[in-house]
Amino acid sequence: MNISPEQRTETVLVTGGAGFIGCAISASLLQAFNRVVVVDNLHPQIHESGERPNELADGVELVVADITEAATWDKVLADVKPDVVIHLAAETGTAQSLAESTRHTLANVVGTSQLLDGLLRNKALPRRIVLTSSRAVYGEGAWRKAGGALFYPGQRTSETLDKSEWDFPDAEPTAMRAAEVFPAPVSVYGATKLAQENILQAWAKSYGVETAILRLQNVYGPGQSLINPYTGIMSLFCRMAMGSRSIPLYEDGEVRRDFILIDDVASAVVAGAISAQTHPTPLDIGSGEFQTIGTAAETIAARYGAPAPHVTGQYRQGDVRHAWADISDAKAVLGWEPRYNLQQGIARLADWIDVQPDVKPA
Ligand SMILES: NC(=O)c1ccc[n+]([C@@H]2O[C@H](COP(=O)([O-])OP(=O)(O)OC[C@H]3O[C@@H](n4cnc5c(N)ncnc54)[C@H](O)[C@@H]3O)[C@@H](O)[C@H]2O)c1
To answer: Which residues of the chain, if any, have pLDDT below 70?
Structure first.
């Protein structure tokens, strides 16, 4: 980590900083900044005990409060004048967001606008705001026809999915790169993450605040919630395999994802906070390679000696068929690159799950 002497005197404010990603960056932030303040409401879907998580580094100040309330910001910003804000707090359930759109919109969209209004109202404009956006903003992304032309297939419908027509005919998916692929979300969650990006960019440009918007692919690894049923397919698969269950694979098991270990995401988010350069457009953060869900499940089953996974042909509304990132821009701008492959990452996740108290097979 290259930290300038000035940065060590700075304050960083992290919303949602008691969650999976927030805890993973907390020790590095304490090295890079003089003061680290987290605002998090310890949401019960993620924080079963409602207590400060052990994984949040000692030395981080935790304010338990809701980012959607204006009063939170008046209280916090009376005392804290952040140089950098890392905005992580969000409701993150992709499928859940279709049934609970108000809840997701409130936390993600209104939560962002309340933060920005609060910074302005309290004369606490930071130098930079880092936003962890999501690959969900792309929806199905751009596909390439057999003849070579790019097109946007839009949302898959129940009609085609009910007939097990998983892919778009005569076309191949392409990697997600913000500079090339337009966003076209197919879940309420994805729509709220895109709204966050747009609101932040419009606001930050007006007030001369730098932005680093990171579109994360599927993050997994030690520290991931073992109780949230709406996120975290890798930890769910581990808990199924732990109970000697055959992991059920949706669609045909060939769904592609870009799984990135939490350590690699943590280094990208910290780089977004301290890098000399930022970039006006979002940066894609992933391993840069895709794996099928079937391959990930087989690797996990082998780790636990569980029976082979099986294809169910079920599907989930709001899920996209394929997703992986082109990480060339993130590497160039942030001077960052991922270090772990899928096998190493799954080994780290499973080793961590093995030593968690009260972990229940799924
Ligand atoms: N984990 C992933 O795979 C992934 C992928 C893409 C993008 N992201 C984005 O990264 C960010 C962090 O994700 P995570 O995996 O750490 O999620 P997480 O659920 O573990 O952490 C989110 C934190 O936000 C807090 N929070 C939620 N609503 C709040 C509110 N109204 N007020 C205050 N705090 C609130 C929760 O208590 C939690 O500690 C999110 O913005 C998410 O959209 C995550």
So the answer is: 1-7, 229-231
Could you identify the atom of ligand 1 that is nearest to the CA of residue 21? Answer: 16
* Residue 183 covered by a domain: yes
CA gap 234, 300 in Å, rounded: 8
Distance 18 CA to ligand 1 centre (A): 9
Within 6 A (CB) of ligand 1 lie: 16, 18-22, 40-43, 46-47, 66-68, 88-92, 107, 111, 132, 134, 193, 216, 218-219, 225
- Residue 348's domain spans which residues? 7-354
Does 1 fall in a domain? no
Catalytic: 189? yes
Residues 181 and 174: their CA atoms lie apart, in Å, by: 9
The CATH code of the domain that includes 208 is 3.40.50.720
Number of domains in the chain: 1
Q: Give distance in angstroms: CA of 88 to centre of ligand 1.
A: 5
Distance CA 94, CA 255 (A): 16
Confidence (pLDDT) at 229: 64
d(CA 18, CA 86): 12
In whole angstroms, how far apart are CA 58 and each of 19, 65, 235?
15, 19, 26
Helix axes 188-207, 111-121, angle to 10 degrees: 20
| Residue 29 near residue 36, CB atoms below 8 Å | yes
Q: Which residue among 26, 56, 92 has the greatest number of ligand 1 atoms within 8 angstroms of its CB, and so is best to mutate?
A: 92
Per-residue model confidence as pLDDT tens digits over 247-299: 999 999 999 999 999 999 999 999 999 999 888 899 999 999 999 999 999 99
Torsion sign over Cα 286, 289, 295, 301: negative
Q: How far apart are CA 265 and CA 94, in angstroms?
A: 19
Any idea which residue has 């309330």 for tokens? 69
For residue 298, give every residue at least 6 positions away whose Cβ sits within 8 Å of its Cβ, in sequence order, or none: 308, 309
State how far the Cα of 18 lies from the Cα of 21, in Å rounded to an integer: 8
Q: Is residue 156 part of a domain?
A: yes
Cβ 116 vs Cβ 199: under 8 Å:
yes
Query: What span, in angstroms and rounded, lies between the C-alpha atoms of 187 and 294?
Result: 23
337 domain-assigned: yes
Instruction: Match 């996120």 to its residue by tokens.
Output: 231
The pTM of this model reads 0.96
